[in-house]
Automatic annotation (TrEMBL):
<keyword id="KW-0134">Cell wall</keyword>
<comment type="function">
    <text>Hydrolyzes acetyl esters in homogalacturonan regions of pectin. In type I primary cell wall, galacturonic acid residues of pectin can be acetylated at the O-2 and O-3 positions. Decreasing the degree of acetylation of pectin gels in vitro alters their physical properties.</text>
</comment>
<feature type="signal peptide">
    <location>
        <begin position="1"/>
        <end position="21"/>
    </location>
</feature>
<keyword id="KW-0961">Cell wall biogenesis/degradation</keyword>
<dbReference type="GO" id="GO:0016787">
    <property type="term" value="F:hydrolase activity"/>
</dbReference>
<comment type="similarity">
    <text>Belongs to the pectinacetylesterase family.</text>
</comment>
<keyword id="KW-0378">Hydrolase</keyword>
<dbReference type="GO" id="GO:0071555">
    <property type="term" value="P:cell wall organization"/>
</dbReference>
<keyword id="KW-0732">Signal</keyword>
<keyword id="KW-0964">Secreted</keyword>
<dbReference type="InterPro" id="IPR004963">
    <property type="entry name" value="PAE/NOTUM"/>
</dbReference>
<protein>
    <recommendedName>
        <fullName>Pectin acetylesterase</fullName>
        <ecNumber>3.1.1.-</ecNumber>
    </recommendedName>
</protein>
<dbReference type="Pfam" id="PF03283">
    <property type="entry name" value="PAE"/>
</dbReference>
Length: 419
């Protein structure tokens, strides 16, 4: 157990606690996942006997020539663990989360971290949750070929630009192209089944790249996509401002993303709105699963109650611990949840799609064992996340799960509360 904790913590892969007060919305790039050191409480029921499999980093070959580089120009990379047995021809491509950057200052900051440079990436990472190679932890995907794509472009794999003066590369698009070519070459070309998934900013990437991913595979391949905590909602913050819109506008402009956005969306909405999942998901042809906490802790902290919108700090207790919110604050969050449910309406009606919207205060639930599948992992009507995703992928029935409103769900981990 100690060892598991140690490795997860050291590598910063378990993302629970916000970096307290360090990254403010208006000053810095937005972290769409968090690191933390206080994971012991939430790690209790991870199967302590099972040894976590560590998987090495593969850097993309000839990355410079192919333009498949991180913000700082270093090669982009991924971690690959081969499939076996009945999973040998199945592929899971899972995209890490990270932050978006839309100005020199925040991008220069990112390029000195693992989310902007492979120089700072862990050489090995633990494969847990949806990436686990153990049937007891990951019953449907454990023996698939599993890939974790590292996030280092600051733009959900959409940018195609550079800023020579600041020595910044925005090559999300080229990273994606090179990655897919290399994976096809490594055997994904003959995949029988494939799932493109991702968490947070990577969950948004899974939405952007879903149909394209499907089109790169054989017609006979069963291809689906899963977005975990990628449903960032266009919603006014507590001061009435649209802070996330402002950030997206900057990112799109700075990284030259407009031409990469889907045409169907651009015909109807402006480029900024076309960076929001809610305007993208309905036209997607491949089956898509939206997994999100209705009280997504990142969105609450960085989009609904950013420090810029709350100069007096009257939300500061509530934003980091939902149990400390007063009735009117909860009411605001209920309005947010209601909006989310409504925005998912037409999408949910499409038979091919799946939804798991649980009334928890968390962010990213596929990567960590204790939210994906463990004795006390979150569930809606007794269905845990790994089971819901597997049932949807393999069409075993019941793919739409929308929780009752807070505080009815007693299975939540609400990790951020434990700060
Ligand atoms: C968490 O992130 C902060 C800011 O990037 C960094 O200074 C700190 O070392 C990180 N902690 C861990 C445990 O990775
Ligand atoms: C970690 O959690 C324990 C138990 O709740 C608490 O006593 C401790 O102060 C926490 N440590 C940090 C660094 O937050
Ligand atoms: C609840 O919090 C809000 C926002 O911080 C504040 O304006 C309001 O006065 C509080 N309400 C009560 C009843 O304390």
């Amino acid at each position: 157990m100690k060892k598991i904790l140690w490795s997860l913590t050291l590598f910063g892969v378990i993302l629970i606690l916000p970096v307290n007060g360090v990254m403010e919305f208006d000053k810095m790039e937005r972290f769409t996942d968090f690191n933390g050191t206080n994971v012991s409480q939430t790690e209790k029921d991870v199967n302590s006997k099972a040894k976590v499999t560590m998987v090495g980093l593969t850097l993309i070959k000839n990355a410079g020539l192919r333009g498949a580089v991180c913000l700082d120009g270093s090669p982009a990379g991924y971690h690959f663990h081969p499939g076996s047995g009945s999973g040998a021809k199945n592929w899971l491509v899972h995209v890490e989360g990270g932050e978006w950057c839309g100005d020199i200052r925040s991008c220069v900051h990112s390029k000195k971290t693992r989310h902007g440079s492979s120089k700072y990436m862990e050489k090995q990472i633990p494969f847990t949750g949806i990436l686990s190679d153990k049937a007891s932890e990951n019953p449907d995907f454990y023996n698939w070929n599993r890939v974790k794509v590292r996030y280092c472009d600051g733009g959900s794999f959409m940018g195609d630009n550079e800023n020579k003066d600041a020595q910044l590369q925005f090559r999300g698009k080229r990273i994606w192209t090179a990655l897919i070519v290399d994976l096809l070459w490594s055997g994904m070309e003959y995949a029988k089944q494939a799932l493109l998934s991702g968490c947070s900013a990577g969950g948004l990437a899974a939405i952007f790249r879903c149909d394209e991913f499907k089109n790169r595979l054989l017609h006979s391949t069963r291809v689906k996509c899963l977005s975990d905590a990628g449903f960032f909602v266009d919603f006014a913050d507590v001061s009435g401002d649209r802070s996330l819109r402002n950030l997206y506008t900057d990112v799109i402009e700075f990284q030259s993303i407009t031409t990469q956005l889907p045409n169907e969306c651009l015909k109807v909405y402006n480029p900024t709105l076309c960076f929001f999942a809610q305007y993208l998901i309905v036209p997607i042809k491949a089956p898509l699963f939206i997994l999100n906490a209705a009280y997504d802790s990142w969105q609450i902290q960085e989009s609904l109650t950013p420090k810029s919108a709350d100069p007096s700090g009257s939300w500061s207790d509530c934003r980091s611990n939902i149990a400390k919110c007063n009735a009117s604050q909860i009411k605001f969050f209920q309005g947010f949840r209601t909006r989310m449910v409504k925005l998912l309406g037409d999408f949910t009606e499409q038979r091919k799609n799946g939804v798991f919207l649980n009334s928890c205060f968390s962010h990213c639930q596929t990567e960590r064992q204790e939210t994906w599948l463990s004795k006390n992992s979150p569930a809606i009507k007794n269905k845990r996340i790994a089971v819901a995703v597997g049932d949807w992928f393999f069409e075993r029935g019941g793919a739409k799960h929308i929780d009752c409103a807070y505080p009815c769900d007693k299975t939540c981990r609400n990790e951020v509360v434990e700060r």
